[in-house]
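Problem statement: downstream parser choked on a complex file, so we are re-checking the raw output for the pyridoxal-5'-phosphate run. The parser issue turned out to be on our end (a line-ending mismatch), but while we're here, posting the original submission so the record is complete.
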Amino acid sequence: MAAINVTQGHKDLLREIIESQIDLKGLAQNHFRPQLKVADGQAVGSHVIFKGRDCLQLTGQDYLGLTTDPRVIDAAESTRAYGIGALGSAIITGTLDLHLHLQKSLSGFMGSEDAVIFTTGMLANLGCIPAVIKSPYRAFMRGYGNSKSAIFADDRSHESLRMACDLCKAHGVEIHKYHHCDYNHLDELITSFGRDNNLVITDGTFSMDGDIAPLKEITDVAEHHCQRGLRTVVYEDDAHGIGVLGANGRGVAELLDVEDKLIVMGVLSKAFGTLGGFVIGDKWFTDYLSYCSTHMFSLALPPAETAATIESIRIVAGEPYRAQKILKDADYLRLSLRQNGYEVLGDKTQIVFIVIGDENESARISSALEDEGILCPEIKFPAVSPGRAGLRVTTTYSHTQDDLDDFLNKFYKVTRRPKAAA
Ligand SMILES: Cc1ncc(COP(=O)(O)O)c(C=O)c1O
């Protein structure tokens, strides 16, 4: 083993450690990092300033246009007296009256007894999943904790779910991945590898593919294994569906009528346009989750975001036409693209994934669109499977019909396929 030159500076050594694992230049070249600016005097909507030019953006996750809604901004501004940050972790000194109000609004919207709120969706998953399947509270586990556990996760789960699985694995939980949305494969895996306690993990709405999980069949599989004596519950992360799908905006679980059969997790950073993650449930469950590490050892939501979210929830509940519009717009794009012979993933959601396949060709199309004033970065491995690169287009309440047609026309132009006559 060659000696390390300890006379070099700390920063050089750090760089050497990182570069021994990864090609930093390649990473920077391969990953798009847009630097957006808000147009002078205008809030971000469907158009942004990118590299000094006004561009139409089709990648946003402020699905219902609430990030810039004056009512939401006013609510945030009304919290001046609270200061800019929460005063601590939610279970020490960080719980303000605003947080209790938000919990009430959110559980009212979601039709649950209670909700536990985290500062981000990532933290919600990293905290709740281990808490459900492998209690991290060693101090309270005397006489408990000897049961064996396994997780069965969709192989296209969001990174935050995968990281939660890694944490559980470090505590001895076995992790199995089933083929995307394939409930028969899930069934086979639980039949072979089911343990005393089993957790099935899936996104409700898949953020890249734009499809939805077959939750009815997945919860049926879980019930079937419960009947065989294996405790099996389902955890659904519906970051992209809550606020958009279902008769009352409660997401895929509501749409597929399985709300009382699974654990529902959601985020506040997409349809609600603010910040935060949450899990709903009965009070005993949310009380339990409030002791998980990422809730207990992290600052509570800032007051401005908390008040803004209370207002966002009120708007989402009272203005269902916002969600209806973005779903209709996504159907419009999918129909046109499919009629023109493109492979488009997903249905029923506001996420339209156009499969290009080759990464270089996707990059070329994305860059040609940028030249045309359209911001739509290519999506490639590891966000999608190798060889399935493409463009992920999301419709938002801010997009106009002209925006959609502008995108289609320019997309057809740069991919050199003529648009079929309407
Ligand atoms: C499916 C899913 N879960 C969780 C998260 C994390 O949410 P947050 O951005 O609030 O950390 C995201 C964010 O992209 C997501 O797409």
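For whoever reads this later: The pocket of pyridoxal-5'-phosphate is lined by residues 120-122, 125, 158, 160, 203, 207, 237, 239, 267, 269, 277 (CB under 6 Å).
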